[in-house]
Amino acid sequence: MKLVVIGADAAGMSAASQARKRRTPDKLEIVAFERGNFTSYSACGIPYWISGVVSDRDALVARTPAEFEKAGVRVRMRHEVVAIDLDRREVVARDLEGGGEIREGFDELMYAAGAVPVTPDWARVDGGGVFGVQTLDDGSAIKVWLESDPKPQRAVVIGGGYIGVEMAEAMIKHGLDVTLLEKSSQPMSTVDLDMGERVRAAIDGLGITVRTGAHVQGIETSQGRVRAVVTADGTVPADIVVLGLGVRPNTALAVESGIPVGVTGGLRTDLRMRVVGPEGHVEGLWAAGDCVQTTHRISGQPMHAPLGTHANKQGRVAGINIGGGYATFPGVIGTAVTKVCDLEVARTGLSSKEATRAGFEYVTATVESTSRAGYYPGAETMTVKMIAERRTGRLLGAQIVGREEAAKRIDALAIAVWNEMTVEEMTALDLSYAPPFAPVWDPVLIAARKATDALLAADQG
Amino acid sequence: MKLVVIGADAAGMSAASQARKRRTPDKLEIVAFERGNFTSYSACGIPYWISGVVSDRDALVARTPAEFEKAGVRVRMRHEVVAIDLDRREVVARDLEGGGEIREGFDELMYAAGAVPVTPDWARVDGGGVFGVQTLDDGSAIKVWLESDPKPQRAVVIGGGYIGVEMAEAMIKHGLDVTLLEKSSQPMSTVDLDMGERVRAAIDGLGITVRTGAHVQGIETSQGRVRAVVTADGTVPADIVVLGLGVRPNTALAVESGIPVGVTGGLRTDLRMRVVGPEGHVEGLWAAGDCVQTTHRISGQPMHAPLGTHANKQGRVAGINIGGGYATFPGVIGTAVTKVCDLEVARTGLSSKEATRAGFEYVTATVESTSRAGYYPGAETMTVKMIAERRTGRLLGAQIVGREEAAKRIDALAIAVWNEMTVEEMTALDLSYAPPFAPVWDPVLIAARKATDALLAADQG
What we know:
The structure is a homodimer.
Chain A: E1 2-6, H1 10-22, E2 29-34, H2 46-51, H3 65-70, E3 74-77, E4 79-85, E5 90-95, E6 101-105, E7 108-111, E8 115-117, E9 130-131, H4 136-146, E10 154-158, H5 162-173, E11 177-181, H6 193-205, E12 209-211, E13 216-222, E14 225-231, E15 234-237, E16 240-243, E17 247-249, H7 252-256, E18 274-277, E19 280-287, E20 294-295, E21 302-303, H8 308-322, E22 336-340, E23 343-349, H9 352-358, E24 362-370, E25 381-389, E26 395-402, H10 410-418, H11 423-426, H12 443-460
Parallel strand pairs in A: 1-2, 1-7, 2-3, 7-19, 9-16, 10-11, 10-16, 11-12
Antiparallel strand pairs in A: 4-5, 5-6, 8-17, 13-14, 14-15, 18-19, 20-21, 22-23, 23-26, 24-25, 25-26
């Protein structure tokens, strides 16, 4: 038996490792193809490496090709799979360094080609200094550019999502003048407007110039270097441009081999991460990570959720099943977290906008409290917002903005959302209390109380 | 209508406040009796006030008598209720300052007399310098004693639970030589032995002398001052002795008026916090806080859980019901948290010992991971232990020991326990991930994976 893996990053190599754990090399040969220079690295860590917070690029690599080889997983680096033949059960891979192509037969095929940055036509320019932030190679290129001559002074970051905001902060740490262009009315629009305002204030506080409602029309270059970003409202000079416009599933190869994608552009899979085609799952074809479509457990809608944590879990599930075990991936609930300077931002479940789009009627409750007992030194303001469905009282989503020790508390709310708890039941939760860790009424409990009151008021109204 | 409240601390005054919120003073008169000098204070904060971490005693008082009066709640301070007549619907209270007794009729009676420290006969000594840590008055007395002449040099803390360990650290902060006497094999025995070892190391690291298996037989005094604590293994000199032997429900008054207590010594209540007597609930009699017995939701067993956070919730529930609303308190799951120096310790659900006692068969899984991505600055080691029931795979309990930002993560596990999640399902949880906040596999997820593997191994064995 042979397993071929396309893409040797989180999803692919989690699958390879789990399959190897269950099947010795004499029972299952594993060959992974990777077009890039690295295996299993933390893409989420790139902004922190660029900013200098993390000093060592190699620290971002969880496991090297040599380590995989030692564990009995063959890794062909700088080999790009260019064709999949499902009938003949083989892939064709191009050697990007040595040239030439090789064919590799398979019994099981793990498709983990990841995602590609969204790059509008206007972003496809010849000049140097325009970067995506997708791979370690992108990170290296940015670091080289920042030290190039003449040294860049002005950065424009396009897109105010997680990566955009993290990269804007990284550019500030390099001493650049930074402008962040966001097309909607607020950066970090994955949280509600009232919560986003607090994030916006932190971004402003870093000295980043934020331009919302920005419609980028083009990028100006001269003499091989970027010069400015052109928007509907004027031109912003730039010596470096960072694109934070999100990513889309990298499914071209699968589509060419006859596998249709889902409405989000990602491959459809079943719960075991088997790829689903027009006639049910395709025997021996697996997919995981940024190239697949998953389900939001609260809205019930398909979504594309390109995050390393999902890629690892999905890859693990695929690998367990490939190895003869049984595991399932039940979908996501949209949990995410980041920080801006020392302001922590976290969300789970549905935002107000998402809840509306999904068809829910809901109430919201926002409370300001503190991270520790008010009298305990170091207590920091913390804002918790809850979104609860009318009538049922079910917690649909929650958001937290605060300083030290605030964001990771979203996990408690994520588990409440996952279990479809009502906010009323949540008022009774036995959460941890001691003065150094929480007020006697934990902010989560206060929010649950307020949401319960809001439900009562809504149903009386 | 008149509501009389016995005990003007967390439980009683939460009830008073909620009842007042729903019933105006013309509809409901509220009178609270308090034998002490303070209302609604944070008893959990006392060790931190004694240590000097919290500098202001008044900061521990959430709401003063004057504030309650302003809100339409009459508070009779330094009045101790000495008799309850359920037939005549009145209480008798003694004025501890002015002398004399008053009678107060009631329609509804809220019993919130709290707890009293466990004080063995050997601890009842005439000498000064032996203290419980139950009330703000106790705290004041300790602070005065620490500054008395001759200045105490050697402290002995008896009992290695939360309060004992917190007080031992407070004594170290005052520069004393501190010995902690614990009768079991390890302090902080509310966590499993393997987790407790880590706590023990932190206690040792503070310079506290820990003597386990210690059987205290007496306290020696001379010239009105404590001199030593006598144990079966020898005598430990002491200029101050702090008792951390736990508390028992203060139910004497209720018992005298004919209300039987439960097996834990606490008053039994129904879900709405109505006191339950031999023939069902007693009309118009409510109880909450450290004087009641509650139910552990996982073991199904009655337990005494004297914690401010429960007292507040139970009091709130009683008050809502007294005020004509509807609310219930569904029991606890044994969540608790503290810190020793910078080592954080947290638990929820059942410990191994408790699970065994409750009749469960279970597996355990302990993992060491980090609080942030391993490459992110400030990542600290974190240990997570899970206890899962055999066959069902249900999470019965969990414990966390770690540095910065570790302990409060117990809330996520508490909500998983509360919802009776299986560790298998937990491997798929959508927990927050970003390098400053967690490794890509959150420690909780790694523990869930390991517990799942342990279950599989147990059922194959």
